[in-house]
Amino acid sequence: MRGALLVAGTTSDAGKSVITAGLCRWLARRGVRVAPFKAQNMSLNSFVTADGAEIGRAQAMQAAAAGIEPSADMNPILLKPGSDRRSQVVVLGKPLADVDAVGYGAYRDRLRAIALESLGRLRAEYDVVVCEGAGSPAEINLRAGDIANMGLARAAGLPVLVVGDIDRGGVFASLFGTLALLSAEDQALVAGFVINKFRGAPELLEPGLDMLRSLTGRPVLGVLPWADVPGMDVEDSLGLADPVALAPYGGQTLRVAVVRLPRVSNFTDVDALASEPGVVVRYVTSPGELDDADLAVLPGSRATVSDLAWLRGRGLDLAIAERAKAGRPVLGVCGGYQMLARTIRDEVESGAGLVEGLGLLPADVEFAREKTLARPEGVAYGRPVAAYEIHHGLVTRDPGAEPFLDGCREGSVWGTTWHGAFENDGFRRAFLREVAALAGRDFTPAPDVSFRALREARLDALADLVERHLDTAAILRLAESGPPPGLPFVPPGAPA
């Protein structure tokens, strides 16, 4: 077969990413050559492909679901917010410019052409391309320049499924309202609905489903039940929640506190820590929440200097310094590592010039205009480590500093720019053993937990949900043949 479809949503975090991943895994299990695609993604959670391109981490997860290597074509445009008004525009994996909303308009036609070319290449190579929308297709203030939702669907002739999250409430209003706000030309491509995260008795939902079908002339192609499938890479901090801890494995619990920075990036680094039985990971924003933590983590940041100022404004800098002085474990990753250094010279990201760091590691930082994008490999604790790097800040450690991956260590404080390092099972267990020893905890990591195997099992669980609860035959017909002709136009206010 040959085909494509677009999975849109009534809101951000409605479930587009995980349903796209579930469809990719379900199709791959059937022997279909399938690829994910998201024309434009706004996310601080990114990944580096084998050839050094930066894409959204969700698309890398979806590629894993499809059983293929991720590529820049799967997410040709990535927007990385550095403030409330400006974002870095990454095109085909490389930074293009830092712009505000007005400045972005100057690039729109060029970016639309690039996105369509990427989709065309994927459609030529794969049997099916499952596209994911961005935000909501009913953001009517942005429709004229849209390249990720109905603008993409219209340009590529894609049938559209609209996903609504019933757990948020108001799902029928949001599904109907999304459709009613679209033009007749856009509505003609909306071929059905999917309701996500349903809890309760299915028969209670049926009257609403019947009325939605009657009002819109479109089928509900499935109701996915609420299911905890942890470890699926969310796109932004809207979907950020404490990772689900597995049952304890002997000994005591090891407690990890991750500082939730305003511009936190690549927060999925800690998912692998939470995959260890007995490790409890939580996000914190105040000094008191660090008190009982065995390990405090400063994660990545898209705005290192600004987030460092936020840290100081909350008194978290003093709490972290006290931990280090007492020999209690602290870890900084990428932007968090930069904060732990003595000085940060930034004329690129913030333009702040020379800024004093926390001074807990014997290193200094200088921001470069060219972004480092790499897939490094190394050894730590005698175990192999494969990871990825995404940063402008270049850290220079003192010649005599104790190395840690590409970074350094001073007593109970570690710093590295490597993302994804804890997905390496042997290294993760060795690191946690040392953290536990320094924290005085009776904790021993389980000897046989494979993060890769856990992620594969979670992707299979998503595919199982798709197979059991969606009308997969109808979805395949839509992907291959497009939306059926003659779908009715639904004007705003039609229910009244």
- Percent range of helical residues: 25-40%
Poorly predicted parts:
none
Tell me the number of helical segments per DSSP (H or I, 4 or more residues long). 15
CATH architecture of the largest domain: 3-Layer(aba) Sandwich
Order of strands across the widest beta sheet? 15-13-16-18-27-26-25
CATH T-level topology of the largest domain: Rossmann fold
CATH superfamily of the largest domain: P-loop containing nucleotide triphosphate hydrolases
Q: Could you give the distance between the termini?
A: 42 Å
Instruction: Tell me the name of the CATH class of the largest domain.
Output: Alpha Beta
Pairing-aware structural class of the strands and helices? alpha/beta
Main sheet: strands, sense, barrel: 7 strands, mixed
Report the portion of residues in β strands.
25-35%
Per DSSP E runs of 2 or more residues, the count of β-strands stands at 27
Domain CobQ/CobB/MinD/ParA nucleotide binding: 6-227
GO biological process, one term: cobalamin biosynthetic process
Active site: 334, 419
Function: Catalyzes amidations at positions B, D, E, and G on adenosylcobyrinic A,C-diamide. NH(2) groups are provided by glutamine, and one molecule of ATP is hydrogenolyzed for each amidation.
